[in-house]
From TrEMBL:
Entry-linked Pfam families: CASP_C
Domain CASP C-terminal: 93-309
Protein name as catalogued: CASP C-terminal domain-containing protein
GO CC entries: Golgi membrane
Organism of derivation: Rhododendron williamsianum
InterPro entries: CASP_C
Superkingdom per UniProt: Eukaryota
Keywords: Coiled coil
Coiled-coil spans in chain: 77-118, 186-220
GO biological process, one term: intra-Golgi vesicle-mediated transport
C-alpha cells in the first residue's frame, strides 16, 4: 500500500514538473502580447508589420514599429499644419476682399445719394417739374404703389429718349448719371414689388386657412347647438312631466340670445331639405340671369334692405335712382 502511494506521488510530481515549464512559457507569451497591445493602442500599424511583430519574441521589432508610427503621425501633423496655414491665408484674403467690397458699396451709395440730391436741386424749378416730373415725382414715391412707380419710371425714360430737346442742359456725364439713378431706383422698386407680391401670396394662404378653420368652427358650433337643443328638450319634457310648466318656460327663455337664434336658423336650414332645395334653386336662377337683371336685382335688394332708402322710395313713389354715373329706373312697390 505504501509503495502504491509513493508511486502515485512520484507520478504526480513528474506531471507537475512537465506542466510547469509550459505554464511559464504560456504566461510569458501572454504577458508579452498584452504589453504589445498596450503599447500599440488601437493598432494603426499595417497588418503585415503587426503579424511580423507578434510572431517574434523580441521587443526591438515592436519598438521599431512604434517609431515608424510616430514618424507617420508627425508627418500627418505637419501636413495638417500646412493646410491650416493655407486656409488661414485664404480666410484673411476673403476678409480683405469683403472689406474692399463693403467700402465700394458704401462709396456707391454715397454717390447715388449725392446724385439724387443734385437731380432734385437741378430740377427744382416749376417749369422743369411741369415738363419732366408731371407724371413722376421723387418726393411722392413713398406714397405711390410700387407697380405705378415702375410704370412711371419706364414712361419717364421713354419720354427722355423720345424728347431730347426737353432734357436738362448739362454735360453728357450728368445725363448718364441721372439715367443710372433712375435705373437704380427702378430696380429698387421692382424688388419692393416682388416682396409685396410675396407678402400678398402669404396673406392669401393665411386667409384661406383661416376661412377653412372658420367654416369648421361654424359646423362644430351647429353640432353643439343640436346637442344643446336635445338636452333642453329632454329637460323640458322632464320638468313638464313633473307638473312645473312655468319653470320649463323660464328655463327655455333663459338660454335665448342672438347667438342661439343665429345657430338655430343655420341648424334648421341644415335639417330642412326644402330650405336647402329652395336655396339651390335660387342660386341657379340667379346664375341664369343676365347682367342687367343682376344689377337691377342687386340694386332693388340694396334699396329695400336699407331702412331709410326703403322709406324714401315708398314715400316718393317711382323715381330714378342714380348708381354712379348710370341712371336706373326702379319699379313701383306693389
Amino acid at each position: 500500500m505504501h509503495c502504491l502511494v509513493a508511486l502515485l506521488i512520484k507520478q504526480t510530481q513528474g506531471l507537475s514538473d512537465q506542466l510547469e515549464p509550459e505554464q511559464i512559457s504560456n504566461y510569458s507569451t501572454r504577458n508579452l502580447r498584452e504589453q504589445k497591445f498596450k503599447a500599440v493602442g488601437y493598432n494603426t500599424i499595417e497588418a503585415e508589420d503587426w503579424e511580423v511583430a507578434t510572431s517574434g519574441e523580441e521587443m526591438s521589432k515592436l519598438e521599431s514599429l512604434l517609431l515608424d508610427k510616430n514618424r507617420k503621425m508627425e508627418h500627418e501633423v505637419t501636413q495638417l499644419k500646412v493646410k491650416l496655414s493655407e486656409k488661414t491665408s485664404l480666410l484673411e484674403a476673403a476678409e480683405a476682399k469683403i472689406s474692399e467690397l463693403t467700402a465700394n458699396v458704401n462709396e456707391q451709395q454715397r454717390l447715388i445719394q449725392k446724385l439724387e440730391d443734385d437731380i432734385l436741386k437741378g430740377y427744382n424749378s416749376k417749369d422743369r417739374r411741369a415738363i419732366l416730373f408731371d407724371d413722376w415725382d421723387v418726393s411722392e414715391s413713398v406714397a405711390t404703389e410700387p407697380s405705378d412707380l415702375v410704370m412711371r419710371l419706364l414712361s419717364f425714360i421713354i419720354f427722355m429718349e423720345q424728347n431730347p430737346d426737353q432734357r436738362h442742359v448739362s454735360s453728357d456725364q450728368d445725363q448718364s448719371s441721372m439715367l443710372k439713378v433712375i435705373c437704380n431706383q427702378r430696380d429698387r422698386f421692382r424688388v419692393r414689388l416682388r416682396e409685396t407680391e410675396e407678402e400678398i401670396r402669404h396673406l392669401k394662404e393665411k386667409i384661406g386657412l383661416l376661412t377653412g378653420e372658420l367654416e369648421r368652427t361654424k359646423a362644430d358650433n351647429v353640432k353643439l347647438y343640436g346637442k344643446i337643443r336635445y338636452v333642453q328638450d329632454y329637460n323640458q319634457e322632464k320638468v313638464v312631466s313633473r307638473g312645473s310648466k312655468k319653470y320649463a318656460e323660464d328655463v327655455e327663455s333663459g338660454f335665448s340670445s342672438d347667438v342661439e337664434s343665429k345657430y338655430k336658423k343655420i341648424y334648421e336650414d341644415d335639417i330642412n331639405p326644402f330650405a336647402a332645395f329652395s336655396k339651390k334653386e335660387r342660386d341657379q336662377r340667379y346664375k341664369e340671369l343676365g347682367l342687367r337683371d343682376k344689377i337691377t336685382l342687386s340694386s332693388g335688394r340694396f334699396v329695400l334692405g336699407n331702412k331709410m332708402s326703403a322709406l324714401s322710395y315708398l314715400s316718393n313713389g317711382p323715381e330714378e335712382s342714380l348708381l354712379g354715373d348710370k341712371t336706373l329706373n326702379l319699379p313701383h312697390a306693389q
